[in-house]
Each structure stands twice: as C-alpha cells, then as structure tokens.
Design a protein that fits this description.
This protein is of the alpha/beta class. The protein contains eight helices and 20 strands. The structure holds flavin mononucleotide (FMN).
Length: 335
C-alpha cells in the first residue's frame, strides 16, 4: 500500500522531472552587438556575516540528471565553497527513469535499508571543512543511497551540515529525517528543496539567509586589489573615489564577465555603485571602469572611445592581460 501511494505520488511529478532532466546550458554566451542593458546577472556577494557557523565550506552532491549539480554550482559560486561530486562506482542505468519499474536499482535500493552503493573517490582532507552542504535528488521521497554511503564515510562531529535537494514536487523534510541519524554529532541546519533548473538568485537568497559565514576573508589592503583569471594574477590600483570604495566592499567576488568587441569584458552588478561618468577620450589597456551605474568593465586594449565611464582602477602591469582574458566570456576573481 505504501509503495502504491509513492507510485501515485511520483506519477504527478514524472512530467516535471522529465522536463527538467537536461542540464541547462549555463555556458551559452548571450548574443550581443553592444553591451545589452538587460543582460543582468545576480551579484555575487558572499553571505552576510553574523552570529553563525563559520569556516571553510564544501558542497558535496549526488546528481543523476544534472539538476542538483546546477544548484551545487550556484552554492559553490556564491560561497566560494569547494565542490565534491558523489559518484556511484556503478552508474545508474536508464531503466531507473521508469519510476514504476520495481526491478530497477534505484527502486530496490529505496526499499533496502542496508543498501550502501560504493562511491568513487573521496573528499581530500575532510577535516579542513567546517560547513558541508549536502545535495541530492529526491528519489521515491527519500535520499538516494549513495548519499548514505557518503555520510557514513566521514566523521561529521563538530561540522555544520546544510542539506538541499531538487525534486519534481516532494519537499525535503522527510528525506532529511532519513539521513540525519547517520551524522548525529553534526549541527544540521534546515534543508531546502529547489526545483530543477533553480535560478542563481533563488539559491543566493537562501544562502544569504543561512546562519553561516565563510572563513575570515582576506582584508583588502589599502588601494590595491588583485584580479585573477585562469592561473594569472594582476595587481590593480584602485582610484580614490566612492565608486572604487563601494566596489571594494564587494570583494572578494568572482564575476562571470562577458566579451565585447575584442576590447573588453563586462559584468552587470545587481546593485548600483556611485558614479560620476566622464568621457576619458581613450581607455587604456588595464583600465577597470564602471559603465552606467552597475556595469563593471575591464579593458584589455587601448582605444579612443565616445562613451563615458567612472574609473574604478587600473591594472598596474597589464602585460599578458588580453591573453589571460581570452577571446570569450571569462570568470574573473577580484580580491
Ligand atoms: C528514480 C527516481 C525517483 C524519483 N522520485 C521522486 C519523488 O519521489 N518525488 C519527486 O518530487 N521527484 C522525484 N524524482 C524526480 C527527481 O527528484 C528530480 O528530477 C530531480 O531534480 C533530479 O535531480 P538530478 O538531476 O540532480 O538527478 C525522482 C526521479 C528519479 C529518477
């Protein structure tokens, strides 16, 4: 009877699950001929500091069709957490897509309390982490068993665990009840369910409301900051103005910058910065500018411009900047 109820429940979410099974192509670059005002992305502020669990973070997740991985990527991006994918040594076959197939492995494991599928790899030096996000898809109302294996593989005493899941419709509560006894010494925070394809802003809103904070962030000293792209680091000197001062408050931050015209990379912040734009005549390779009130631009070429900008700073030695930024969109860490 219990199984029948679960089958009926899952019937309701088959369509939802099928529609969100594909991985979103988050790397697709928007087409543009000019810097589009509407190409806004949520900003990348770290969680607010507070009276909270504090320390180095890990996002460990199991994801069969990519939905949970999408949320895990947002969490890692927002918090700076390391990521670890829980990969079953033996992959789940396509037959597990058929929720009604009682002979499918996922179904059988769901009703086998002792099932602990082997998982590949291991977290390197788990001791270093204080806060561990644990993500999974809901399978038959519960946590897939590879996550049980993961939880039983480490000592979580003194760590804070933050569960999250994706599902067609089932909420997270009962699934957490199933796994929390596996790490009884951990400080379990309330979990959160997301739908497949959850937006970065919905994840960020949740993360910012959590009672956690990242490790002491390195102080931004004086008027210097560092831009890191790929393996290359560039020191920049900030302007003595309120735009640079407010930008500094966002650090450290990683911006997924878009390419424009073979000259520059840009990113729209969610919040406005103070601006006092003027036409510089020419922008210089290495200039870091604010366009409008919220568009951060890094120029990797010197050229005359008719546009107006507020200067945020300048890369001290831009040698190699163009090569490091590359021809396409790129992630730049400002620290
Ligand atoms: C075997 C199986 C069982 C599932 N059971 C449920 C369920 O009980 N409730 C629900 O809302 N969604 C259920 N789903 C849908 C998944 O939870 C949902 O598609 C999830 O976002 C998949 O995450 P993933 O892409 O990270 O694997 C199930 C999916 C599979 C494959």
């Amino acid at each position: 009877m219990k199984k029948l109820l679960i089958l009926v429940l899952t019937l309701c979410m088959v369509l939802t699950a099928a529609s969100c099974g594909a991985r979103p192509d988050k790397d697709a670059a928007p087409e543009q001929v000019d810097r589009p005002e509407e190409n806004k992305a949520a900003d990348a502020l770290p969680p607010e500091a507070g009276e909270a669990a504090e320390g180095k973070m890990l996002v460990a997740y199991f994801s069969w069709t990519g939905n949970t991985e999408g949320v895990a990527n947002h969490i890692a991006d927002i918090t700076g957490a390391d990521k670890f994918e829980i990969v079953p040594a033996e992959p789940y076959g396509e037959e597990n897509n058929n929720y009604y197939d009682e002979s499918a492995r996922a179904y059988k494991e769901r009703y086998d309390a002792s099932a602990r599928p082997e998982i590949d790899a291991a977290v390197e030096n788990m001791e270093q982490y204080d806060i561990v996000f644990i993500g999974y898809p809901i399978w038959y109302g519960e946590v897939p068993k590879p996550v049980y294996t993961f939880l039983e593989s480490y000592d979580f005493e003194g760590k804070t665990i933050v569960p999250f899941c994706t599902s067609g419709s089932t909420d997270i509560g009962p699934s957490v009840t199933g796994i929390s006894p596996l790490a009884p010494e951990a400080n379990w925070l309330d979990g959160r369910r997301f739908s497949g394809g959850a937006s970065r802003s919905s994840v960020e809103e949740w993360v910012n409301g959590l009672d956690i904070k990242t490790e002491e962030e390195p102080e931004v000293t004086g008027n210097k900051m560092t831009l890191t792209v790929g393996g290359a680091a560039f020191t920049a000197t900030l302007e003595d103005n309120s735009t640079a001062a407010e930008f500094k408050k966002l650090l450290p931050v990683t911006l997924d910058m878009s390419e424009l015209n073979g000259n520059e990379k840009y990113y729209y912040l969610d919040a406005d910065l103070p601006s006092a734009a003027a036409n510089p005549g020419a922008v210089q390779e290495g200039d870091i500018m604010l366009y409008g009130s919220n568009c951060v631009v890094v120029f990797y070429k010197t050229f005359s411009t008719a546009y107006s900008y507020t200067k945020i700073g300048h890369i001290d030695d831009p040698t190699g900047l163009a090569a490091a930024l590359g021809a396409g969109d790129v992630s730049v860490e400002f620290n």
